[in-house]
Amino acid sequence: MSNANDLQRSDLQTKKNMKLFDVYSLFDVTPVKAEGCRIWDDKGQEYLDLYGGHAVISIGHTHPHYVQVLSDQLSKIGFYSNSVQNPLQEQLAERLGRISGYEDYTLFLDNSGAESNENALKLASFHTGKSRVIAFHRSFHGRTSGAVAVTDNPKIQAPFNQCHPVTFLDLNDILAVEQELAKGDVAAVIIEGIQGCGGIHVPTAEFMRSLRELTQQHGAVLILDEIQSGYGRTGKFFAHQWYGVRPDIITMAKGMANGFPCGGVLISPMFQATKGMLGTTFGGNYLAMAAALAVLDVMEQENLLENAHNVGEYILANLPKSDKIKEVRGRGMMIGIEFHDSVAPIRQALLKDYHIFTGVAGTNMVRLLAPLCLTQEQADRFLSAIKVLLNY
Ligand SMILES: Cc1ncc(COP(=O)(O)O)c(C=O)c1O
User: Fold this and answer.
1) What are residue 47's phi and psi, to 5 degrees?
2) Which atom of ligand 1 is nearest to the CA of 253?
3) Strand order in the sheet with 356-357
4) From CA 367, how far away is CA 350, in angstroms rounded?
5) Residue 9 phi/psi, 5° resolution?
6) What is the pLDDT of residues 314-340, one digit of tens each?
7) Could you tell me the domains of the chain?
8) Which of 57, 227, 234, 262 to mutate to test the pocket of ligand 1 (most atoms within 8 A of CB)?
9) What is the distance in A from the centroid of ligand 1 to the CA of 142?
10) Which segments in the chain show pLDDT lower than 70?
11) What pTM was estimated for this model as a whole?
């Protein structure tokens, strides 16, 4: 008996608590409550959320309609597999087609941005029978095998991911694109509506239109990654709609279900589906569908695209013209303020002294990815803080 106790005691002494795999840099804040564009931490401190949980919060935190729809759904049925009829998926496809102007496209539902891009790249390769992909410098498309291979950051690519044939070109360099397409072995060109993680780089409308023409001419699939720039973030449903082009495939996630994991791929009618070609266990589940439908309800009822556009224009027009700022880029609720020096002290002061969450891109850019419902008064709170911090 005493032997068993001794054994238990020594077991406890040597036992360690499991820790998290340490991959994220964390703010020193523990959110416990949120509403609209505001968050409260465990000490009751309120924060203004200009980061939107990395562009995920579209209609605002805990919107009452969203909470209601999701709770109702959970009490009915939360999950079954993709082997049964799920009318919510059809409702979402119909609504999404109408609101985005892509009624003639089909929808494949999955769970995240990387998964959407992975499926888009597969579709393009199945369709063309080719494998090389053109992507752009400073791109970010996710962390799964194909998605990370078309991401311009060797630091996050394992040797296993580097086997994909990918050619990186400069954004807006249409001649380089033409030269590569002319080789005849390109399955797809993948491009973000506005580059997000790479530092809010906006392709020119002229480049996008020529890209559309050239991909068509050379039989390559044009994939628009709208995972960060889509779903109303820039004031149009998709950022590429500012350029007047229609891609073959559009990938979505982030804002789609306001924080409930959900991704999707819009697919042009030129692609032929076959059973089993794509698939996923969780994609299109009842809760994700309820959340995504509630997002579209609120977007329409509260004119959130228009609001994102107007408040974005207001911020762009009222940012101080400080010589510490190198350039300001972006649209709507996707704005990058590039400084000459590191933004770490400014972001720290915004968080600690003004209680404002912001995002970052690289070392010198403050990235604003606020929920689409940000008000002008809330924008003013940020503008006043930044003016003081820049001694303006
Ligand atoms: C443009 C873009 N594509 C893809 C992704 C990957 O999305 P996820 O993290 O949901 O896989 C991101 C995420 O930040 C993104 O910004």
Assistant:
1) -130, 150
2) 10
3) 31-35, 38-41, 46-49, 356-357
4) 13
5) -65, -45
6) 999 999 999 999 999 999 999 999 999
7) 64-301 (3.40.640.10), 306-320+347-359+384-392 (no CATH)
8) 227
9) 5
10) 1-14
11) 0.96
